[in-house]
Fold this protein.
Amino acid sequence: MPEFDSGSNAWILTSAALVLLMTPGLALFYGGLTRAKSVINMMMKCLVAIGVVSIAWTVVGESIAVGDLTGEHPLWGDVSSSFLLGYTTDLEGYTGGVSNAAVAAFGMMFAIITVALIAGAVADRMKFSAWVIFATVWVIVVYAPVAYWVWGSGWIEDWGVLDFAGGTAVHANAGAAGLALALVVGRRIGWKDGNFAPHNLPLVVIGTGLLWFGWFGFNAGSAFASNGTAGLALLNTQVATAAAILAWLLVDRIRGVKPSVLGACSGVIAGLVAITPAAGYVSPIGAIALGAVAGVICPLAIGLKHKLGYDDALDVVGLHMVAGIWGSISVGLFAVAEVAGTNGVFYGGEAAFLGKQVAAVLAVVAYSFIASLIIGLILKFTIGVRISEEEELAGIDSAQHGEAGYDLPVNGNTGTGVPETNAAAAEKVSA
C-alpha cells in the first residue's frame, strides 16, 4: 500500500469542495439564461441532482465506476468491492497516498455536475418528477459505466485513450444525453418565434464566475496530487479559457453581432470544457490553440440547432458535447510526451493515437445518446415527461413548485396578484 500523503489528500479534499461549488454555480448560470418564470425550476433541477446523485453514487455508482481496479471487467467495476462505500479500516492508500474516501468524494462531485449539465437541454418544459427519476437512473446506467471505461481500467483506458478530467466521460457524455432528452421531451411552445432571451444576465455572470473558480478543482484536482501536473492543468485551464473568450467575441464581431456579456460567458464555458480532457497533457501554447478553436466552433454549432430543428434550450449540445468532443480529439493533436507519455500528431505522434481518441469519444456519445433516449422514452410512455401546455404558458415555476423567482410589482400589482392602492404606492415612495 502506498504511503499516505497528507498534502495530496488535502488537495483532493479541497478540489472536491471546489467541484461541488460548480453545481450551485451552474444553477445560477442556467437560471439566468432561462425566462423569469422558469428560473426556480432550472435551479431546482440542478440542486436536486446533488441529492439523488450523492445517494446513488454512495450506494452503487462508485462501485460500478471504480470497482477494485483489477481490470477484470472491461465494462464495469467489481460492484461488491465498494458497495455502499463500506470503507471502515482501508481508508488510505488509493492513488498516490490519497485516501479511498477522499477519492470517492471527488468522483461523486464529478457525477453530480455531469447530471446537472443535462438539465439545461430541457428547460421550461420537463416535469420535475420525471427529471428526478431520469437523473437517478442515468447516473447509474450511463455515467458510472462510462467513467469506468475511461478512468477505471475499462476498455477505453486499456486502449490507451487519454481523458485528463472528463471531456469524454463528462461533457460529451452529458451533451449527448441532453440531445436525446430534448428530442424526447420535444420543443418548447413557440420555440422558433418566441422570446426566450435570458432574463438575468448578471446572474449568468455570477454563475460563470463560480463555474470558472470551481473548474480549477475539476481540472487541477484530476492530477490526484499537489504536484507539477496539477500546476500545469491549472495554468492550461486559464489560458485556454481566455483564448476561447476572445475567439468567441471575434466570431460574433465577424458575424455582425455586438460584443455581449452572453457571448463572453459562453466563451468561458466553451474554453473550460475544451481544455478539460487535455489540461494535464498539453503545453500552454497547445492549450491556447485548442481554446481558440473551441471559441470558434461552438457558436457556429449552436446556430445549427435551428437548422436541424431540435430545441436544446440552454445549448448543452453546442457547448458541452461539441467542445467536449473537440477537447478529446485535441489530445491526439496537441499532447506532449513529457506530460502525456505520448505525443500528439502535431508533435510527431502517431495517427493511430488520434484515431483512438476520435473513436472513443464517438463511442461514448453513441452509447449515451441511445441509453438516454431509451430511459427518456420509458418515462414518456409511463409517467410522462412534459408539463401541460397550460402550465408551460403560465410558467413551470408556479406549476411545478408553487414558487416564483421574483416577487415584484407588475402594472400596479404585487407579485402575489394583490393590487396596490394609489395611497399605498405613494406611501412606499415617500418612505
Q: What stands out?
A: Confidence is low (pLDDT under 50) at residues 412-431. The chain has 16 helices and no strands. The CA atoms of residues 63 and 80 lie 7 Å apart.
